[in-house]
Amino acid sequence: MTGEPMPEVVTIQTPALGDRSYLIHDETEAVVVDPQRDIGRVLAVAESRGVRITHVLETHIHNDYVTGGLALAGQTGAAYVVAASEDVSFERLAVRDNDQISTGSITVTVMHTPGHTPGHLSYALREAGGNVVAVFTGGSMLYGAVGRTDLISPGQTEPLTRAQYRSVRRLAAELPDDAAVYPTHGFGSFCSATPTSGTSSTIGNERQVNVALRREETAFVEELIAGLNAYPRYYAHMGPMNRRGPQAPAPSRPARADAAELRRRIDSGEWIVDLRERRAFARAHIAGTISIELGDPFSTYLGWTIPWGVPLTVIGDHPEQVTEAQLQLTRIGIDQIAAAATGPTEALAADGKISSYRVTDFGALAAEWDRPGTVILDVRRPDEWRRSHLNGAVHIPFWELEQRTAEVPAGQVWVHCASGFRASIGASILDRAGREVVHVDDDWERAAQLGLPITT
């Protein structure tokens, strides 16, 4: 017996992006893996445990969020650990396969696990006796799945998919059954190549369920590539930001916008996003605004839809909604909101320019299916459309709708997705364009249950 404490792993979840960060400590010193940009959460955990952060580890250059790694290392004096193979614009502790990092009684071994990205690393945590007790797998081995392999370039997708297969198999071959698996992605993140399952796992369990460990290589590669679907457009901006070395966000308080200022911004083509509940938006909203309800999907879908760089103004019921929206947006690199307004719609609408549209469900659509002039618009992803869709529907993904409104046929447009969230974005974009819309705020499974004609 060494008397040294077993390292504790504290999970810091970011449900809005489907990611997890980790703090590993031995009651004195700590290591952090893949911190999100709002590092205050990590510092609060370290303070609550009374530990000093000595190392910040990145598994890879992230494509789905702006890292807080460099800022956290700078604020704590920790070493910032990044793969030596990565081309970055900042000083870091460059590590390679089989390097070891030790602090206090914590020791991690670097494992090069390419696939999600070419330089991807995993970190195997060893107890005092040398046994591996956990592995931090980033976007390599996920729970029952693997990280997607198409974020670098089309030409690298197949080689990276083959590398991902071998990396996951290496982890399974070299690590013990009881080693806990701690991925960064896989909890709703679009960085997952296939759906994940569960909230915890071990190497032994992954040997039984992981897609890369239940297929031979060619079948795995074909299946994974065929299943890759669309991912948020803002991902294109995350990697370059992370290579430059992002600092901690310092968002200023947005300028207060009154009714006249809101109308000026709307008329100039800027994005005015209403954070309020989507049904409340449909009942009454300022004409020309867009509905993106504040909740876990908010930053993902706003970043996916908004033209990057367009000035953004937000409207909420109260200032706390604006603050929460601003926090979520800093995680994807939108640091400044141009303006904000709070209060009742009627008080914020210049010249009484208030709009509304109907909200209903698939049952109402079934009842009005044969009504002349009805247009059904499906705003889901292409892979969802290919699996099944309503007969005769028009398909335009929600993030393309602003540029493709002219393609929507004349008539009353019934907009649906899989749950109602994305449909609210689509309905508001069409409403802004002057179209008559009906927002179908319902679960897609109900369409089949109600007997609506579906092509599969």
Report on the architecture of this protein.
The protein has helices spanning 40-49, 69-76, 154-174, 203-209, 217-227, 235-244, 259-267, 278-283, 298-305, 319-330, 345-348, 362-367, 382-387, 421-432, 445-449; strands at residues 8-14, 19-25, 29-33, 52-57, 79-83, 93-95, 100-103, 106-112, 121-126, 132-138, 180-183, 255-256, 271-274, 285-286, 290-291, 312-316, 339-342, 354-355, 358-360, 374-378, 389-390, 394-395, 412-416, 437-440, 454-455. With 456 residues, it is α/β, with parallel strands linked by helices. Helix 3 packs across helix 5. 48% of the residues are buried. The mean pLDDT is 96.
The averaged pLDDT comes out at 96
Spatial order of the strands in the main sheet?
1-2-3-4-5-6
Characterize the largest beta sheet: strand count, sense, and whether it forms a barrel: 6 strands, mixed
Total strands = 25
How far from one another are the termini? 61 Å
The geometry reads as: globular
